[in-house]
Amino acid sequence: MSNWDLMMPGMGLTSIGLAGLVLSYAGIAHTFIDGMHALTGLTMFVGLIFLAAGILDGGVSTSNRAKATTLVILSISLGFGMYAMVMNTSNYTVTIAGILMAIAFPAIIISYLYMKHPTVAKPIGAIVSLAAATGIIMWVSFGIFSAPDTYMIPQAVVDEPAEDLTPSGPIFVIEILADSTIEGNPDYDPDVATVSQGHVIEWTNADTLPHTVTSSVDVGDTFDSGMIGAGEVYTLDTNDLEAGEYEYFCVVHPWMVATLIIEAPTEPIKVLIPEGAAIPADDQLYYDPTVLDISVGTTVIWDNVDNTMHTASSGTPDAGLDGVFDSDIMSAGDTFEFTFNNAGSYDYYCILHPWMVGTVNVE
């Protein structure tokens, strides 16, 4: 007959140990890292010993109750085992399963021999123990001299620099205006924005309430900012959009509607600072061309082909710099580029030679 006083704690300890092993090797808890895997494994083995002793106490029981108990134990073991095999994140699951079988099968055989043939159990047990000890010694010895696999040894993690996914390119600024939550008030500025591909659009929320920038035709599939809090910025890389017209709106305040027009990228236009520009003369060109007409989103490149230093600084000699753009000092051969994202007329001059003036008209 089976000994239920041994079987009951055996079943409990086995279940607890199996649960701990599953948690350890599935990555659900940090018990594997912290060494708790060893404790839960030991708990499971102690439970198996109690369980085996209880089942085999007084011989192999053939009662229906013993068979049912065995089936329950096998079901629990197989269930946890399959879960651990399939759902775990450890690379050593097969190794652990092999170790468990290497321990379980000899234990079952020795237990059976102790019950049926006690006279041969001791020598067979000694042989199995010597074989196990020899295997462990050989593994350690050869592992030391042949650079063993770093099994269960924490490896130094080299932190690779994270890839910078921030979109890069000329910035086109759109402002979500204050009090735009009131229906009829201006909302997005500009209301119709024409942007060349390659630009990065920045929506800045100047209001005190959250807003969104959401494509209208597909309700956010093309682009969707999510909630933009007060003072926050949403960026959109126009390289991800095809040329065309996109209406967008605020999900929170659907009367806030604006239009985004994406144009195919335009080639930069070059303005030369010719030789001799530093000397005032009636027939001298200071910026070539002096007056430039372009469309919104065009990039202008100033190229200093003179043999002295110059600047291209927005403003006028009388009023001074206005801060829209400034090349700083450009030595001979240097270039400076600026993208005009807003319509208007922009005067500029050289702060070193104030008779050098030019104009960019943006439509």
TrEMBL record:
<dbReference type="GO" id="GO:0009055">
    <property type="term" value="F:electron transfer activity"/>
</dbReference>
<keyword id="KW-0472">Membrane</keyword>
<feature type="transmembrane region" description="Helical">
    <location>
        <begin position="126"/>
        <end position="145"/>
    </location>
</feature>
<dbReference type="GO" id="GO:0005507">
    <property type="term" value="F:copper ion binding"/>
</dbReference>
<dbReference type="InterPro" id="IPR008972">
    <property type="entry name" value="Cupredoxin"/>
</dbReference>
<protein>
    <submittedName>
        <fullName>Copper-binding protein</fullName>
    </submittedName>
</protein>
<feature type="transmembrane region" description="Helical">
    <location>
        <begin position="36"/>
        <end position="56"/>
    </location>
</feature>
<dbReference type="InterPro" id="IPR000923">
    <property type="entry name" value="BlueCu_1"/>
</dbReference>
<feature type="transmembrane region" description="Helical">
    <location>
        <begin position="68"/>
        <end position="86"/>
    </location>
</feature>
<keyword id="KW-1133">Transmembrane helix</keyword>
<dbReference type="InterPro" id="IPR052721">
    <property type="entry name" value="ET_Amicyanin"/>
</dbReference>
<feature type="domain" description="Blue (type 1) copper">
    <location>
        <begin position="282"/>
        <end position="363"/>
    </location>
</feature>
<keyword id="KW-0186">Copper</keyword>
<feature type="transmembrane region" description="Helical">
    <location>
        <begin position="92"/>
        <end position="114"/>
    </location>
</feature>
<keyword id="KW-0479">Metal-binding</keyword>
<dbReference type="Pfam" id="PF00127">
    <property type="entry name" value="Copper-bind"/>
</dbReference>
<feature type="domain" description="Blue (type 1) copper">
    <location>
        <begin position="187"/>
        <end position="262"/>
    </location>
</feature>
<keyword id="KW-0812">Transmembrane</keyword>
